[in-house]
Structure formats: structure tokens, C-alpha cells
Amino acid sequence: MIVIADTSPLNYLIQIQADHLLPALYQHILIPVAVMDELAHPNAPARIRNWLNELPAWLEVRNVTSLLSLDLAFLDKGEREAIQLAQELNADLLLIDERMGRQEAIRRGLTTTGVLGVLLRAGELGLIDPELAYRNLISTTTLRTSIALESHFIEKARSVWNPGGAVQPQPSLEINSPTLIVHCDWSKNQNRRWMSKAVLINGTFAAHVPELVGDLSTFIQRIQAQLGNNESALIGFDFPIGLPKSYADRIGVSSFLDFLKTLNPESDFFQVCENPKEITLDRPFYPHAPGNRSREHLTQALDIDYDHLLRTCDHAQEFRSEAAALFWTLGANQVGKAAIVGWRDVLAPALRGNQVRLWPFDGTLPDLLLPGTTAVAETYPTEYYSRIFGQLPGSKTIQANRAAVGGQILSWASRNEIRLSETLPEEILAGFNSGDDAFDAVIGLFGMLEVVIGKHPEGHHPDPATAQVEGWILGQP
User: Contact, 302 vs 309, CB < 8 A?
Assistant: First the structure.
């Protein structure tokens, strides 16, 4: 969809901090150079000038290639170039407010809407209350309308405003719907463990800004305290939940659930080996620190080649590279130390206390998401990237790269009728000021939501017997 914007719609939306609606509704916006110049005028409001200091990835400035059309000379330069650019690109929509400019654009066969039209469309999707936004426009900007237009807009705004974000409440989900979905992006470091949650309200999920996980000893209880009677929760953890089958066969384990329940916090299994001589089948995590350490030390001590230390779901997929082996604890993408913290401090105690049920070991999601239950699943945010925003332009550790896909993320939420909390769109478009862990907390949540609302299958291991040992990643084919 090609959308061109004139100056005033951008101006007004930026001033009321509602510019996030544009990528949510249209994904990408083009403006001509003259519009950029008008936005940057020294007399423009300070909020506009500050906004221009770091242009969002969803906004692109284009040159008009055709000569000025003489019959557009009565319009200001921004309007002229916006109309001409829309004609050159055969745009699907032109955002323009000024009456004469809109009339001329319509005369030329262009489809137009203005800032009020943007607010109404956003209201239909539950992105903003259009009446409140209009009141904000009138009180804080130079926008003025007639009494008749205001009356018509308010009536229309009240009729379309849909706080749930869906045209109709979803009559039925593909699975028993949890009331609360929580995704945790995990780490061995507590200041890098972030979670994001979505709450089911009147048939529609509302997603919230990420927050730190906090105290692990009370984590499950804190989640369950948010549930009412007969309500259920689904928690996703971004660390491996399962053992490689080759290793499980060597130690005689046919059920990961039974194995995990037997592990106490002081178990040798959780002690990371400092040198190759310490590696045994009962103590497989290695190494504790870098320095003349290699994968060969691990594979030779366990007598299992590295490829067989990967679970089936760890292997490379069409849109992501191979995951790290569970027991290797060195490097940026290692998962071993994070798994130790998750298993030792959260999952094992919760399983021994019958507080949670584990997917897919205890059954499919329809089996698990019953009233009064808390289900846990393994997630992998990278697995969900391609479905939610395509591909990052570079490393996710760089904020600008995360911000570059903000528009696509908001569009995904809009298409799937996921309501976003008041400040979440701003965080998404900013590329998450808290870092890539907070980013992955939200992307993981959205990947889980795809499964729960029936837009993507939950996935399953190709071998049921092996699945009881290795587990699976939620939503992986």
C-alpha cells in the first residue's frame, strides 16, 4: 500500500503524540521534500522539531520527479508536491487536510483522508479513542472545525470507537483461551530477564509494556495471583525445556518431566564444570568461564558428537539459524546457564508443587489450558521474527535496527486485533529503550498470541516418544 502524507496530518498527530497510528494503520509513509521542509520550519512547534531529530523508520522522504503542474500553483508547496508525488506513484491514499488541496486531489482521481479520518480508522481498530484525541487536537493545536463538522465527527467517533480493537469479539478461539499470557525473555542475569503479558478482555487480548521478571522464588505465585477463579494462564520461557535424546538415552531417561522433578537445587547436574576433567554425564554443563575451552572437551567427555547434543527443534529452520546446544555455556548465544536458572529456580519447584503443567509433555494446549491451570511452554522469539516483521536490518542489539521494524510490528498487532497498552506503541517505534531483551519479550508474546488466537499451529515433535524427552518450541513447524 502506497500512502503519501501532506504536512498537516503529520503535524497534528505528532503534536498530540499519536503519530504511532500511522505505521499501525499504513505501515509505511512517503512524504515529498517540500513537506519535510515545512515540518522543519524554524516556526514549527518544538515537539515537531524534536521529533525530526530522529526520523522513524516508517517515514521516507521522496523527490518529486515531474515538473510543477501550473494548475497546482494556487496551493502551497507541500500540498503541490504531495499531490504530484501521489500521482507519480499511483498512491493508494493521500493524507491531506486543507480543503482546496483535498478538492484538487479528488478532482485528479486520488483517494484522500485527513487527520480526522485517521483517528476514526484508528478508533475502529481500538488503537485510540477518536473523541478524546479530537478534544486534544482542538485544545493543543491550531486545528479548527465548524460546529456542524465537529458534531458529525463526535457522533461518528462514538459509533466506531471499539476499545477491544476488534469489529466483533472473537466468538471462539482455536484452543481454550487463557485469561493471561506471559512471555519471559530469559537470562542468567536478573537485570536481563524481561517479561511482557497480554490479558484477555471481552474476547480480545491487550498487550502491555515489558517489565523485569523479578524474584524467581515468587514468580509463578505472582502470575497466578492475577487470575480469577477458573481462569488459566500460559507462560512462555525463552530457554530450552527438554534434553537431547542422545544424552537422555545415555543416562536412561525417557521422561523429561520425571527427570526434572528429581533435581534439587544442590544437584551436581546444575554445577557448571570449570575444566574438562570435571565433565561427566551427571555434570554435563561446560565451561564455567572462557580460556582454552572448546566444544571438543564437551563432546569427548560425554562421548556424544555436537550435532547429537542438539534437540530436533534446535536445528536450523528456514528463517533462523541453528540454536546453541543445551550444555555448551560459552558465547553470546549460549543457553545453558539461562536454562540452569530456569530449571533450578522456577520449573523444578513448580512441578514438584503441582503448580504448572508443561507443554508438550503433559499434552497439547487444548489439553492444558483448562480452567484453573497454569501451562508453561518453551518459546524462541527468533522463530517468530519472520511472521511478525520479516527481518531485522542488522543486529538486534542496535536500537535503530529494532526501531526500523516498529511499523511492521504495529501492523501485525492491528491485523491480528491485538490491543496495545497506552505506551507500548511508543516503545515499539522507539526500538525499546530498555534493550533487545525487552524487545524479545514482546516479540515472544506476539508469537504465543498467534498460536492462541488460531493464526498459527502450536507445532509438535515428529516423534511422540522422543517428544517426551526433547520437548518442542511453541509455534515451530
Answer: yes
467's grid cell: 517428544
**Distance between CA atoms of residues 84 and 282, nearest Å:** 71
* C-alpha cell read off for 219: 514468580
3-state secondary structure of 93: strand
Q: Are strands 419-420 and 180-185 parallel, antiparallel or unpaired?
A: unpaired
β partners of residue 62:
32
Strand-pair category, 419-420 with 112-113: unpaired
Of 135, 189, 198, give the one whose Cα is nearest residue 161: 135
DSSP class of residue 142 equals S
d(CA 376, CA 240): 12
Q: How many CB atoms sit inside 10 A of residue 423's CB?
A: 12
Number of H helices, E strands in the chain: 22, 13
C-alpha cell belonging to residue 434: 530498555
The H or E element that residue 227 is part of is none
Query: How high is the pLDDT of residue 422?
Result: 79
Topology of domain 3-160 in CATH is Rossmann fold (3.40.50)
Q: Which residues share a beta bridge with 112? A: 94
If you write DSSP's letter for every residue of 13-27 in order, what string do you get? HHHTT-TTHHHHHHS
CATH 3.40.50.1010 domain range(s) in the chain: 3-160
- Mean pLDDT, rounded, for 357-376: 93
Largest Cα–Cα distance in the chain? 84
Residue 175 has pLDDT above 70, yes or no: no
Residue with C-alpha cell 519447584? 349
Block residue for cell numbers 542468567: 188
Task: Tell which residue, 397, 409, 174, 360, has the closest CA to residue 255.
Answer: 360
Amino acid at 41: H
81: left (phi over 0), alpha (psi -120 to 50) or beta: alpha
Distances 469 to 109, 259, 320, 425 between C-alpha atoms, Å:
63, 9, 23, 39
pLDDT of residue 159: 87
Dihedral of the alpha carbons of 177, 243, 284, 287, in degrees to the nearest 10: -60
Give me the pLDDT at residue 356, please.
96
Within its chain, how far is the Cα of 271 from the centroid? Answer: 34
Place of cell 473523541: 131
